[in-house]
TrEMBL record:
Keywords: Aspartyl protease, Hydrolase, Protease, Signal. It comes from the Eukaryota. Residues 56-396 form the Peptidase A1 domain. It is a single-pass type I membrane protein. The active site is at 74, 275. It comes from Emiliania huxleyi (strain CCMP1516). Coiled coil: none annotated. One of its GO terms (biological process) is proteolysis. Transmembrane segments: none annotated. This is Peptidase A1 domain-containing protein. GO terms for cellular component: endomembrane system. It is found in: Endomembrane system.
Amino acid sequence: MLAILALAGVAVPGPRTAHLGATTTLAPPRSRIAAAVRRNGSSLPAGGAVWPTAIYWAMLQVGTPPRSFPAAIDSGSGDLDIAALGCDGCVTAPPNNQYDHAASSTSKPAFPFVFRNTYETCDLKHPTKPCSIGGKLYTDVVSMGGLGPVPVKLGAIESQDTNFDQFAQIDGVVGFTSGGSEDVFSQLVAAKACDNIWSICMHRGSKSNGTLTLGGVDSRLSDGPMVYVPDVGRGFRAVQVASFTLVKNTSSAAVAAGTAVLPVTLPVQRSAILDTGTNVLLLPPELLSRLGEAMCADASLAHCRTLWGDPLSSSSCVALSEDEVDAYPSLRMQLDGTALEMSGRDYLLRGSPLASHGGEYCLGIRSGGELFIIGDTTMRNYLLAFDLGGRRVGWAPVNRKRGGCGSVDEGEGHDRLAERCTAH
């Protein structure tokens, strides 16, 4: 999700994103491993999925004595918000917990004492429809991935809107983009617990649905070198996108018949926000329209115009055979120095809340209003590194040979766990 307004006594416009997920049992890092990698990085498992949870999340520990909370991994904000005791509308089922400030000996009220945050991309059926959370502010100690504890300002959520779909299974968000000094990651860096770089891989494996690394890059997760591009964002992490190219599927009926109209390249030349809290690719209306027209010019693509909609804001979900899904072209996004690619199976999604039944496919490319956001459907093909100190973003293909990003054992090869920022 992307924050469009943060209220903490006064209005403070600012970015914010969140992501939550379930279906994965998370265990705390083994203490001997955490100690071994404390200065070079610490990897921990991530839960979540593009659907149905529409977020990826990890565990952290809050307070004294510490209690564990799941929180969405958010590249679009620096806030830590968790459910307060007695929260109206918050999720209580495990692994969720509720923060009781009176039960923590290190908890203190924090100025300006109350907050209210409003987001976009949090309502899965209507990505530009806002939803809000609100509550009280405290300072307390927080640990994550065996690093810490460090003092952090956190929001204790007392109420949330009913359309906050991303908080339907997991209640909480931990942000990694701040510019301030009181968030979790900035405090870990300030305490020299880790370097000013973090990375994430959101590809399901045998042990979890992904891996989050604080303070480095877990090279076991990639199949190939990390390629870095400039971070052009201000307040957000963002990259410059030069063009989109639709790449023909060589097995499609149009190619076999000699009638394929692809590949076709569309100039873009604008920056895109990288938001781990947005599950799909969101485009401005003009770019969305051009891309839909270019793709659906291939008349062999089943139900293409129904998927894209006419007008584009009224797209529908459709039943497709496996061969019909595979016939859809790949979408290649050209950045400054590398290209990101999504197959038809990345942007044609099953399990969407938009579908009338589970077998339908829905288009995972939607209107973001004025926002251009690269979300999890693109990111899950890559090990993604946010080098905050170097103001750059790294991309490497997922190591599928070992079963994806969630197949790394925390005790395996920890001497190779992280590249330090200075070694890139």
